[in-house]
Design brief:
The chain is α/β, with parallel strands linked by helices. It has 5 helices and 9 strands. Helix 1 crosses helix 2 (114-123). The chain is globular and about 45 Å long. The model has no long low-confidence stretch (mean pLDDT 96).
Length: 217
């Protein structure tokens, strides 16, 4: 089981958000965002720490990563086994929260960059459907396998994708292509873009707040 940080914004939380950090960061990276969210209902936030591993694109340096990246082209020689291993780790966290009383539709996967890729990969395949996915500054990995590995039960899954127009790490074209791939498969995707690089901005936090507050309505 992955180690993680946890914040709960009130008693008897209605939802659980499992939020995955980006490459080289850790579970503490997005903790400061929680107080900035304008939440209308109590939510439990889980911020897992990715395992330490060598990352090829960073000269083999060991850092927290959800999977290996071998080239600037994120779709070149994707680390299928690493992606699937992280998927299994997130499935364990989801099951832990289900065992703690959350229904599947009350669990949301969120993630930034690499973490967003794992959130999309795992959440779109989960049965029964989760409550939603928040995918920030990211892309859809192993996209050609998705249609065969999921079902119609997930087509109504709320998906929020957001991206910086000037992102030099995960170009916005990758995010737009992923959104179009999802739409072509029958998913409904809410899309937001901002005049920023590979980061998070205040307008984005406001949109995430609005999206979370719409859940269940």
């Amino acid at each position: 089981m992955l180690d993680y940080e946890q914040i709960q914004t009130g008693d008897n939380p209605k939802y659980c958000v499992i939020w995955l950090h980006g490459l080289g960061a850790d579970g503490n990276d997005f903790l400061p965002i929680v107080p900035q969210l304008r939440l209308e209902q109590a939510i439990r936030f889980i911020f897992p720490h990715a395992p330490m591993q060598a990352v090829s694109i960073n000269n083999g340096h060991v850092m927290r990563a959800w999977y290996d990246i071998v080239a600037p082209d994120l779709l070149a020689r994707q680390d299928t086994s690493g992606i699937q291993q992280s998927q299994r780790s997130i499935l364990e966290l989801i099951q832990q929260q289900r065992d703690d009383g959350f229904a599947t539709e009350e669990i949301i996967l969120a993630g930034f960059s690499q973490g967003g890729a794992i959130a999309l990969h795992t959440g779109l395949r989960y049965t029964p459907a989760l409550g939603g996915i928040i995918a920030l500054s990211t892309y859809l990995p192993l996209a050609d396998q998705l249609d065969a590995e999921t079902g119609d039960h997930n087509k109504n899954l709320p998906v929020l994708m957001a991206h910086g127009i000037h992102d030099p790490i995960v170009p916005i074209a990758a995010g737009i292509r992923s959104r179009q791939q999802l739409i072509s498969l029958g998913y409904s995707v809410e899309w937001q873009e901002y005049p920023m690089q590979h980061s998070v901005c205040n307008d984005e936090i406001d949109h995430i707040s609005d999206w979370l507050n719409k859940l269940g309505h």
